[in-house]
Fold each of these.
Amino acid sequence: MPSKLKLYNTYNAELEEFEPLQAPFVGMYLCGPTVYGDPHLGHSRGPILMDILYRYLMHLGYKVRYVRNITDVGHLQNDSDDGDDKIAKKARLDQVEPMEIVQKYTIAYHKAIDKLNVLPPSIEPRATAHIQEQINMVKGIIENGYAYEVNGSVYFDVLKYAEDEDYGKLSGRKIEDLIAGAGEERRALEGQDEKRNPNDFALWKKASEEHIMKWESPWGIGFPGWHIECSAMSSKYLGEYFDIHAGGMDLLFPHHESEIAQSTACFKHTPCKYWLHNNMITINGQKMAKSLNNGILLEEMFSGDHHLLDKAYSPLTMKFFLLMAHYRSTVDFSNEALSAAEKGLKRLSNAIEKLDELKSSDQSEVAVEAWKENLYEAMNNDLNTPKAIAFLFEAVKWINEISSSKLKINEDDLKLLSETFKTFFFDILGLKLEDEGSDKERIEGLVNLLMELRQDAKTEKNWAMADKIRDDLKNLGVDLMDGKEGSSFKLN
């Protein structure tokens, strides 16, 4: 029998056997996007990790509640407690209401992520819909002595908390180093900053007159800090202590470290049992950055409309490419790697189409039971999708050899091979068979072929044939336009 599922718990920095708090129920939370711009490559890896985990846990028989939030207030520029709210700033630039920005980019996020064949979460709460829950949690932290109010803003007292708890355990940071590192900042802000210590972070911020999004609170009119929203929403829908919290490595500090501190200060224990973190995406060996002009939006990946892309790559090719690397490893996007993933996905898809045509024999020359066990061992070892995919490719070789009568398989093994291969491809990895092209693409290809034939007819001075092709296409709703640089067409 395969071993039990083990997950790498960032909080304890070790691989741990997964034991739900209240089996068969599992609660898990993913930090969702701050919706002030179109989704880029970095927005895809967290949802794909959670999609695999969500699918696999349900496959193992667990009843999963999966929560992924939408941040629509409180996330300030540079992830600090200063500057503009990212959504409010974008709203002012576009001269629209903040909720128009939220709606526009939430739709864009869903549209792009859905193309990856990622299952939607059970609940998708928004920060603005949970202001009262955040206020209540801030009140609890103040009552327990770990926060203080200054001029209508409330800050978490990191040094006070560090006297009782291990602040920095998740990210591996030492409170002494944080204090030392903040020394210059403290001296620079002496007499003008209202925080007791530069490491303190905002739970609630007083709103200026021109601030767009603001609410009434016990401390005056203001808005919540970025970190408190996830603590409030995860505890509302999953309880004060739940199973799994996930997100990108870039959220380790300060976001997730602050979540742990807030929950511990309010509820007197950490928010969850397991912390999972996916690693970052690089482009041709470099971090994505505006200064490098190498940021790729998801829709640009799917359309090929970016200067770093040689062609368009389908959403499933991109998903398969990410699954070919372990979620805790850095993955580097390049045209060569994406093209290889495209070919690999096609090989798996072709094998699935062959499976239903295979003929069984009276004997079997393949160890299907052991192969199936290896697949589960790979997934149980911290969701090792690259290893699982390698075992699927091993089966592709069998399928091709059985198809060409070079290898024999009996009826029972063939059934097990087919069921297991399809289960892992469709249900666990969340892949699917892709069309060779859309109807529009096929039509355009046919029109281009007819245009070439028409040009050949014109070259041979076969005007009757050239006119017939033009007229027949017009009757089908395709207008040809002849110009100095050749012919073009328009679909009506």
Note: The domain at 282-428 is CATH 1.20.120.640 (Four Helix Bundle (Hemerythrin (Met), subunit A)).
Amino acid sequence: MASAEQIKALLKSHLEGDEERFFSVALQVAAHEAGIGHGKLAVELRALVDEAKNGRDTRSLAGGPPAALNRTRGVPTGLLETSYPKLRLGDMVLGNGVAQQLERVVREQRHAARIVEQGLSPRSKLLLVGPSGTGKTMTASVLAGELGLALLQVRLDALITKYMGETAARLRQVFDSTSRTRGVYFFDEFDAIGSQRGLTNDVGEIRRVLNSFLQMIEQERSHSMVVAATNHSEILDPALFRRFDDVLYYDLPDEAQIAKLLKARLARTAIKPIAWGCLASSAVGLSHADITRAANEALKDALINSQSGRVHQAKVIAMLDERRNVTTKLTTKV
């Protein structure tokens, strides 16, 4: 029979979404049963663990969801877009400040049970602020990947409706889901529902939605994470900032970060020697997304037009310039 400590460990690992720890404890229980002569039970337990692991790996290879997370009861179809990211913190290139904040969030989530036992709460409600293309959306995917959770993105086109009271009702369904299905709930373009009360173009219904969100996130006590992202923090209602556990500010990458981004994409295919510092200088002012796109365009060009498939530094610079021109035109139009 499993000990009290093993039962608690099983429950904690399940609540924290730590599958490896859950399987490890289950195998410890199987070993204990074998040691006291319950060989049949031990074999059955090991078989169940193997079956669960194989099923998880098969679903992962097929791009499917873990069965335990494949449920969003009570939520209208299309309101939550579910995915199962595999990204990790090491896949991101960020400034030290934001990177440290994210590492702290992940650590607290992984040790949530210990924190809760002391009457404290792990960081679980995050507001991501910064220009477009600086890694906010990717952050939500990385948090889900690091914690082994589903990423449930709230689709604004399904959330916001023209009928009075329906948007707030759907928002309530999203927050109710956080207790039933543990995951990372992601509100992108959050300013659509979080803009300041009293703006000249504000309407009563949007004010009611904002007030509902303020109440719901204040009362949020589930084991899920709620992550919101915006490019326009200046129009967010000030009351929102107090409701989040942490606010993370994203900036355009500096030269060192740009060089790291380009090396990650091009180091194995670039024709040597390549002046990474020169490339980084030519890309200052571009976002992470623009730089990654330029690197990918250079790679595709090399695959199509070069027998060797090797990337020339001049082509990378040309693609970075192209992205800068596009960005400049878009900014001018705005």
Note: The first strand starts at residue 80 and ends at 83.
